[in-house]
Amino acid sequence: MLNHSILIGRILGIPIRVHILLLILLPVLATLYSSNFMFGLLLVIGVFTSVALHELGHSWVAMRKGCHVQEIVLTPIGGVARMSHIPSKPMDEFLIAIGGPLVSLALGILGVFSISELFFVLGAINLMLFGFNLLPCFPMDGGRVLRAYLAHRKGRLQATRIAAEVGKYFCILFIIFGVMRLNFFLAFIGFYIYRAGQMEYRMVLMENQTNRFSGHREGHIEVEISPPPYAESERGLGTLKKKLRNLFRR
Ligand code: ZN
């Protein structure tokens, strides 16, 4: 899925790529976000810039922990940072997992206090990104935080098994909710994350069985996903905007 992407630049030495499908879907997403096409387009570009910054948040912490970040790819269902040599100490994993959401939170706070309509909406979406990614849905950020917490008490394998199990129920909810509300992005995200969680559990299981796990995952490439919680509709986004306005601008 990550092939077919175009290099748009490098930040912190990390190549940032955009998947061709995202470029094709850009106009569709723009109309999904707003009835004003230009506003919608700027919004979608802003959302994916935010997703890239979120991934850079993870990547920056990861690199400080000795991890190699190969690239960041922006796809229609979110950002993917491909990493290798990932430290497995629960504390390091927690810090890498929290790095992305903290960037989203900071962007969200900056945005909702901005006087520009575009940045205000982007701020609201970043706050959604922050909340959505912190759901304990492994291998999303919140799920990684949960695994890091559990790994302290139960060991890595058990922690991954429980986190993947909890994540499975969230994914089922995403799929049911997505299909019911005709939000197929959410349904697909549910399916994709479920598969990613199961794959990662199997990987940890294999590491455990071969017993060659040495604290760092040599050669393994791990994928960090941060799907943007697509607004179900312009109406959904409108409701959120209204709530935030009431909260910040009485
Ligand atoms: Zn993330």
Descriptive notes:
- Helices cover 65% and strands 17% of the residues.
- The chain contains eight helices and five strands.
- A five-stranded mixed beta sheet has the order 1-2-3-4-5.
- A hairpin with a 2-residue loop joins strand 3 and strand 4.
- Helix 2 packs across helix 4 (117-133) and helix 5 packs antiparallel against helix 6.
- The termini are far apart.
- Zinc ion binds next to helix 2 and strand 5.
- The site of zinc ion (ZN) has 7 residues, from helix 2 and strand 5.
Can you lay out the helices and strands and say which pair or pack?
Blueprint: E1 5-11, E2 14-19, H1 20-33, H2 37-64, E3 68-75, E4 78-87, H3 90-112, H4 117-133, H5 141-154, H6 156-180, H7 184-210, E5 216-226, H8 234-248
Parallel strand pairs: 2-3
Antiparallel strand pairs: 1-2, 3-4, 4-5
Helix pairs in contact: 1-2, 2-3, 2-4, 3-4, 3-5, 4-8, 5-6, 6-7
The protein binds zinc ion.
